[in-house]
Amino acid sequence: MKLHLVKSHNVENHISDNVKTLPPSGIREFFDIVYNTPDCISLGVGEPDFVTPWRISDSGIYAIKDGNTHYTSNRGLLELRQAIASHIKKNHGIEYNPETQVLITIGVSEGLDIALRSIVNPGDEIIYFEPCYVSYAATIKLAYGKAVTIATHFKDGFAIDIDAVKKAITSKTKAIMLNYPSNPTGASISKENLEAIAAIAIANNLIVISDEIYDAITYNGEHVSIISIPGMAERTIYLNGFSKAYAMTGWRLGYACGPEPIISAMNKIHQYTALCAPSIAQYAALEALQRGQRDVASMRSQYLKRRNFITARLNEMGLPCLPPKGAFYAFPDISSTGLSSREFALKLLKSHKVAVVPGTAFGNSYDNHIRCAYATSMEQLKEAMDRMEDFVNGL
Ligand SMILES: Cc1ncc(COP(=O)(O)O)c(C=O)c1O
Question: How far is CA 278 from CA 64, 79, 212, 245, 271, in A?
């Protein structure tokens, strides 16, 4: 057979304008360098270093052995939706109907995408807070929405300025997006601020999209969800998933809970574009919810030790860093180095083989920050901090 190479000329013009103008992820460029740098310690990737707890993986293996390898219902296994509803009821006192108000998604990523596409008409404004997860701006753009960003600042512990939110509301505002504990700052939100956001959402008839993927990795006290504020479960799309808490990033499983009409609208998109979430992962997730809580607690205690260590070391080397209240990211201020966040990350990577992510990946105004993920072993973390200290001292 004669091999035929696929050429790509003349097709660029067919790419949609919306996709053509989508900026590339600020994180990918670094990962490409990391993969090509031997002996590099990566504090770049936002995923647990732990392997999925064996009992969870075993349930996935049994699902395969038992032949549970077919499509499930579009909304996901009812048993899993019931387990999710009980989990939320126990944690937040909110009762979702598993038949109509819970949808199993392909990670929170799909949840975000179909939540936005379900509610956004072209030009609708979505408010969210920077610095934030790299996908928010892109997902809003792909839904033909308009991103309205509100900055939060190191000096305020990255807390939301409620007056700024009030000022940002227009007749086009459709929703407010929240992500607490936050990627990349590790900040959480106070009950007062949740109540203030709730009051704004109710007064202006807005939807809240709450991405709580890091809720189980909360260090000081309990995580409070906006759905537990009176009147908010009725107007919130609650998103969560298994990637972070259960170290299941590759299983690709998440869920969305909310009012029936919105979950039905999301399911409408989901049934055409995804059909259902992976069946094997759904069986594993059921085990995770039913018997995985000790594993979650054990991983959380490891993250806490690492958090205390990395925060102390960063501050000692002159890179002020707030102690993260949740998730597994430190977001130190690097102003003292005089470098831009990109210069810092590139130089550190080239000279000391430690990968961090420039702050600008999470919002243009965060050039004086870097993100260090501490989802890596204590041994690696110690070595990474020694190398970073040497790098900073040598500047
Ligand atoms: C804030 C936030 N939301 C959503 C996601 C995507 O999660 P999933 O693996 O469930 O798609 C991530 C992944 O890093 C994240 O940090």
Answer: 11, 15, 21, 19, 13
Cβ atoms of 322 and 303 closer than 8 Å: no
Does residue 213 have its Cβ closer than 6 Å to ligand 1? Answer: yes
Q: What is the pLDDT of residues 172-230, one digit of tens each?
A: 999 999 999 999 999 999 999 999 999 999 999 999 999 999 999 999 888 999 999 99
DSSP letters, 204-249, are TT-EEEEE-TTTT-B-SS----GGGSTT-GGGEEEEEESTTTTT-G
Cβ(145) to ligand 1 under 6 A? no
Please name the amino acid found at residue 354.
V
Cβ(227)–Cβ(258) below 8 Å: no
Domains of the chain by start residue, with CATH: 15-51+295-393 (3.90.1150.10), 69-291 (3.40.640.10)
pLDDT band at 164 (very low <50, low <70, confident <90, very high): very high
Give the residue, out of 104, 108, 130, 215, with the most ligand 1 atoms within 8 A of its beta carbon, to mutate for a pocket test: 108
Could you tell me which of 184, 206, 219, 169 has the C-alpha nearest to residue 43? 184
Residue 354, H or E segment: strand 354-355
Query: Which residue(s) pair with 104 in the sheet?
Result: 255
